[in-house]
Amino acid sequence: MKITHVEQFAPKNRTRLIRIGTDAGIDGWAESTLEGKPKSVPAVIDEYAQYLIGKDPLRIEHHWQQIYRSAFFRGGAHNMSALAAVDAALWDIAGKHYGVPSYKLMGGAVRDRIRVYAHWGIRDLSDEGLEASRKRLDMLQKKGYTAYKAGPAGPWRAHEPPSRIDQFVEAAYKMREWVGPDVELCFDFHAKMTPALAIEVCNEIKGMRPMFVEEPVPQENTDALKLVSDHVPFPIATGERLLTRWEFREVIEKQCVALLQPDVAHCGGPSELKKIANYAEVYYQHIMPHCAIGPLALGACMLVDAVVPNFLIQEQVDAGLGNGLLKKDWEVIDGHIPLWETPGLGVEVDEAEATKEFTGESYGYHAELGGETYHENDGSVADW
Length: 384
Ligand SMILES: [Mg+2]
Fold this sequence. Notes:
Blueprint: E1 3-9, E2 17-22, E3 27-31, H1 40-52, H2 60-69, H3 77-98, E4 113-119, H4 127-141, E5 147-150, H5 162-179, E6 184-188, H6 195-205, E7 212-214, H7 222-230, E8 236-238, H8 244-253, E9 259-260, H9 270-281, E10 286-287, H10 295-305, E11 314-315, E12 336-338, H11 351-354
Helix pairs in contact: 1-3, 2-3, 6-7, 8-9, 9-10
The structure holds magnesium ion (MG).
Pfam families: MR_MLE_C (PF13378), MR_MLE_N (PF02746)
Enzyme class: lyase
GO molecular function: galactonate dehydratase activity
């Protein structure tokens, strides 16, 4: 079997997909979306396609090594997202070629279903805000979720007055009151805080027993992350912006966090996600893969979630369950997604929808992520 073509599609405003075709008539699909950067990853994939055409698609690790190592410049979000999509599509082809779910080729499943959390929280404490939050919670509770994630909205300065912190803390305690002690609650700080502010806020919410706080500070300085972890009495998580084992190395070895969130679509694909998980297992850290894009990326995450012992919970967003791209959406039952039995990555792509070209207005500079971000009081740049 040989790779004959690599096609790319842009069916939604930000969604980018690839289809790797073979002379055996087997196609592998994957998502190549990089949030906020819709144009650059397809250009990288075009370059990789020149290498891939004519090659045996079943030599997945060999191709990963070739693409990562032999092109001189390594890593970076664009290269790694492109490589991640190629890797996931090859795992899809391998599963279809051998007629088994791809997780059976990665050591076999160590669990029967994948626990997922949903995004829900209270941000607005007004009557209307609370009513909207209650409505969404009622809807999600019908699917049996046992964990929810929220985040403090808007930019945060190096320090904030008590009223700003108190509003977030009050909402956090109200969330606990609403869901009770059997449900887990987590908060994504989106790396917007300084270590000092993050520690202060975390200590204010420790009484409502969070499952974790995610990205309390940016990812570049592992010592700053460890400072937060060392001063907070519950798990800290990070990893959606870290790529490859080499970027995770210090976070794992210094034990800067308890929980790792590699994104399968950016960290280098399912092959690399599994290696990061195996590395973390040595330090009793668990993975909770980041997934804020679509249903093909979710399938690639669950390929690894199925086969590693140190998996805790999977992220997904509403659009990630189908987004009009699948013949049958992923289904959350009792807070879990059951493992699939079909060959490949568990998704049957609706090719008519997936190959449509998006014709609406394209996103401008960072528009997908809300555009330029500034502090209101002085116009200085704020972290997203
Ligand atoms: Mg996050």
